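Have a think about this chain, C-alpha cells included, and walk me through the fold.
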Amino acid sequence: MPGPLTNVKVLDFTWALAGPFGSMILSDLGADVRKIEPMQQTEKRRGMGPYVHDVSTYFFSVNRGKKSLIIDLKAPEAKDVIYSLVKDSDVLTENFSPGTMDRLGFGYEQLKKINPGLIYASTSGFGQTGPYRNRGAVDIIVQAMGGLISTTGHEDDPLPSKAGYSIGDMASGLFTAVGVLSALVERATSGLGQHVDVSMLDSQVALMENPMIRHLATGEVQERMGLRHPLNTPHQLFPAEDGWVAVAGVKDTNWQLFLGKLGLDEYVSDERFLTGPFRTQNYQELEPILFAAFRKRSVSDWLDELRDHFLIGPVNSIADVAIDPQVNSRDMLVSLPTWTGGEIVVSNTPVKLSRTPGGAVRGASKPGEHTRVLLSDAGFSEDAIDALIDAGVIGIEPVSADE
C-alpha cells in the first residue's frame, strides 16, 4: 500500500546519520527519495559495518527505499543535472556544513529561483545562524553540549555517561522530517516553499524540556539521578532475582498497596515515606528497603504481581526486544532485500496509518542504480546521459574498488 507522501519527490543530499534518518522517515511515509551519492562510491565507502551480504548495515538501515544517483557535484556539468532535478522536486534535504551547498551552487537562495515551491531542509550541528554556525558536531558533541550527558548515569559515579544510542543525530533527523511536513502543509495554501533550518544542538535543548523548565523556573540544576526520577519516588528501576524491572505509577493513594505487594507492611505508617516529597527527600533510607524486597523474586513474578495495579515492565536487552511479541505483532521489525541478493532485518516506522500505511518496504539501492532512469525522467536524452557518464560527471555503478 502506498504511503501518504507518495506524490512527494525528495532530492536527498544527506550523508552519515542525522540527515539520512530524516529523509528515511519521509521515504517510509511513501516519498520518492532520490539520494545523491558521490563519485567513487562503493558499498564499503557508504558506511561502517557490520557488513552483511557485502552491504553496510549502517547505511542500509537509514537509506532504505531511496533511489541512488551518483554524481560529481564539483563538476561544472553537475549544475545542469541538479537544476533539472530540482525543477521536479518538492523537497531537498542536506546536512553539509553551513555554506557548503552555497559554494557548490546549490544553496537555497539559488535553487528557489529555479523552483519557488521547493522546501529546502538543512540539518547541521548548530544551525545556519549563530556564533557556533561554522563549528562541526557529531552525536556525542551535541549530547554533551545540550546537557543530556550531565544528567545521564549514576549520581555516585564520577564519570558522566552518554545515551546508549545516537539520539543527538536522530532527534535532529526527526525534527527535520517534522519541519518538512509542516512546510508541505503550509505550501498547500501559499504555493511557496521555504528553508527549514534544524540544529542538532537545538534538538537536544528541545528534548531537555523538563530539566530545562525546572531550571528556568526554580534555578534547580538536574544532575545524574541513576535509576530514579528527580521528582517522583518510586519511579525507577529495581533489581529482581534474575534481572531488572522498571516501575512507575506509585502514588500516595496506592503507596500502601505497593508496600503490601512487596511484603513491607511494617512501613505503611512510616512518616518518612508517607508522601511523594517525603519519599524523595528520604530516598537514601528507602532505596535499600525496596531493593532488598525486589531481589527476593524473579522478573516474571514481579510482572505478574504488580502489572494490574502499577506500571511495570522488564528491562529488555536488544535481543529481548527483537523477539518481543508486542514489537513483532506491530511489524516493527521487517526483512528487506539487499541489492546483492540477501536480506537484512531493519526497524520499521512506528507511524501506523489506516489507509496509506507506507513503511519500510524496499532496501537500500545499489550505488548509482537509478542514475540513468532519474536523469531520463528529468528530460536528459540517452546520448546526453552517455556523454555525462563518459565525462565522469555521473556514474551508474561503483567506479572504484572497495579498498
